[in-house]
Amino acid sequence: MTAEQIRLAMENKLEYLMEVKPQLASDDQLYKAAALVLRDLMVEKRRAHRAKTTAERKKRIHYLSMEFLMGKSLKNSLYNLGLVEPFTEALTAFGTTPERLFACEPDPGLGNGGLGRLAACYLDGMATDGYYGTGYSILYEYGIFKQKLVNGAQTELPDYWLPGGEVWLRPNEEHAVEVKFGGRLEEHWDQGHLMQQYIDYETVLAVPYNMYVSGYDTEAVSVLRLWKAKSPGIDMECFNNGDYLGAFRKTARAETISKILYPNDNHQEGKQLRLRQQYFLVCASLAEITRTHMERYGTMDSFAELNAIQLNDTHPTLAIPELMRILMDDAGFDWDTAWNITKNSVAYTNHTVLAEALERWPQQLMETLLPRVWEIITEIAHRYQKQVENFYHDPAKTAEMAIVWDGQVRMANLC
What we know:
Blueprint: H1 3-16, H2 27-55, E1 60-64, H3 73-80, H4 84-92, H5 98-102, H6 113-128, E2 132-138, E3 146-150, E4 153-157, H7 162-165, E5 169-171, E6 177-181, E7 184-190, E8 193-199, E9 202-214, E10 221-230, H8 236-240, H9 244-247, H10 249-255, H11 268-297, H12 303-306, E11 307-312, H13 319-330, H14 335-343, E12 346-349, E13 360-362, H15 363-369, H16 371-392, H17 395-401, E14 404-405, E15 408-410, H18 411-414
Parallel strand pairs: 1-2, 1-11, 2-10, 11-12
Antiparallel strand pairs: 3-4, 5-9, 6-9, 7-8, 9-10, 13-15, 14-15
């Protein structure tokens, strides 16, 4: 884009989306207009790269992580897209500078520390190298916290980043996914096949938002697919009976999933919320990945050939049984075929051997919250444990390597 094209595009955003005259626009409004212009440019580049990837049957990379420490998008995008000079020139017409607009952008509260920064680096690294990459995470409204020093002591304040940050997000509500928790399974036979019906479950909607991540001097653009939790509705019976708080209790419970990055999990409620977050992420992401694959290729037989699913630490481990569930329950594959596709699609990176990174979940919590996924985990665990026992003939090795042991589900061993 030339400086003149950028200026005209920004004026269009200011006049028709924000209803402000360009000469009266504040730095904050100019920042948002610039972000929208860059977002539109990256959407078009992504669309062209998607068409090329499909035509050439190239593998798509899906990077699942509970956090992405993205940093500020405006400066990074201008540099990667080679638009620093024309944007600087265009902004002189509005009487401002890039540095003043950079100051208007908040840091997205989507990650914390090395794990999240690594995930963010992979997104622009994949785009720079020309790969068709997509990251998947949760659209947290609040980061961990903002720090304020009061009389020399740290005070924690909510890190609400979306005002100013949401301009980079493109909603895609028509592709919302149903995520199911709790409930129970009922089995019955149908023409010689054992069928399962999932009933009495709680539904949470996962609504996707796209954040676009440009690579450096490349035709490729990565996408960070962020899922926001929404309730499918209110309890009208409670509402009609005058229990107005009760009518919205399910709404509050559902939307808590995407409220805050890393809730405290040293109590039962915190553990349950963390597990709900993790399954929410993988269920929505796998539904999206398999849906788009079927739309493009029409069969799940080629899934492993055309998709790589990378798990960033143990947080997205439930992607393994969830993919098995989709392949068996939805696509109709037998266990061995589904397992072969899964093990050739999913890979895992572990970044430390510290206990907090090797998650273990209470068996009872997993069984109650995710009954079908729990069934699949127990079958994987049973088959794997037999292999370990037959190979080592050592009870100590079995105890160390088991997936389900002593009332716990060991996510690193499952990976």
